[in-house]
Amino acid sequence: MNIRQQLVQLLNLAMVLSTAFMFWKGLGLVTNSNSPIVVVLSGSMEPAFQRGDILFLWNRDKYVDIGDVVVYEVKGKPIPIVHRVLREHKVTNKDRKVRQLLLTKGDNNPTDDLSLYAHKSNYLDRDEDVLGTVKAYLPKVGYVTILITENKYAKLGLLGLMALSTLLTRE
Amino acid sequence: MSGITKPVNLYSVAELRNATDDALPLALSKLGYEQSFSLIDTKLAIGYVATILAGSLYYLEKKYNNDFSNLTYYYSMVALVVGYFALNGLLWLHGKYREKDIKYVGINKNNQKKISIEARVENNTTPIYKVTVIENNRLLGKQDIPFTGIFDEDGFIHIDQLVEIFTRLLQEKEK
Q: Where would you find the membrane-spanning parts of this chain (chain B) (predicted)?
């Protein structure tokens, strides 16, 4: 085997990984969301969404509506949360910029999300905290990623399989 | 030099084709040709530049914590994503219109003439190697080579037979 053939094989592997990554980033740019696809990790939105559902987000609407299901991330807590918008306020700043402030709640939770928000904050900021509104979903498919993130052997096994298959096939 | 020392599975057309593709440089070097790598090098260069773009975006994502409100990050992301897919498009065009089925490009050491060899198989159930030889953009000859003619029963390729076939193919034009 010569060096160019090996470089081609390595390139094929690199292309598989980089194309997946760049599609993800491209989708992020189109939807204007830095995490355009998320997997539901908790049961707090049952029966609307179950653990393992995949959600597709869209973040180009200027304001979100009451009743929309949004995904938000609280500063300092790296896990995105999927909950429904319960109330909203539009506040005009001194620089005449309108901010939309939100209160959210999980359909399956007994109380609203005040206790989940950042320290001393009693609202979410539409522009700063919300990753996007849920526009579509695929039920259960995301369970694979839950398995991978919560079980390190599943993760290693899958990575190994992917690497092997791209290195061994030459079609 | 895989495919020459290693037997292939005679029931797999893909393996037969790969082994024959791999044997072309050796066969043609025996006929006085020196292989030219410009096509594959172009492909490698475009591909690896694209990969570097993706890699640097990965680095930026970590550096800026994937914060879309940071405009430096946002616009470099736009540039890198657009650049990446442009290069991929280029790679696709290169494969479709320049590389096509070309498996070997070589230059004759004596008369400096450049030949390209296109080779393909019709499908995965027809064990016939369809070869087209082009010399300086002029069609030199076509031949369908059944794999039974160049592989023996044990799955070893016979370079001499391949050399013989190409000697005939390359001589035809000189008449």
A: 44-60, 72-93
pLDDT value at residue B172: 62
| Cβ(A107)–Cβ(A99) below 8 Å | no
The verdict on a CB contact (< 8 Å) between B47 and A15 is yes
Report percent pLDDT > 90 for chain A. 51
A115: annotated active-site residue: no
Window 45-104 of B, Cβ < 8 Å to A: 47-48, 50-51, 54-55, 57-58, 61, 66-69, 77-78, 80-81, 84-85, 88
Of B50, B77, B98, which residue sits at a domain end? B98
If asked whether residues B92 and B116 sit together in one domain, one would say no
Report how many domains make up chain B: 2
ipTM score of complex:
0.79
The answer to pTM > 0.80 is no
From A44, A53, A68, A129, the catalytic residue = A44
Q: Are residues B119 and B78 in the same domain?
A: no
In a domain, B19, yes or no: yes
Q: What is the pLDDT of residue A170?
A: 64
DSSP string of A42-71, one letter each residue: SSTTTTTS-TT-EEEEE---SSPPTT-EEE
- DSSP character for A130? E
Annotated catalytic residue within A53, A68, A113, A129: A113
Domain membership of residue B8 (yes or no) is no
- A34-140 is classed CATH 3.40.190.10: no
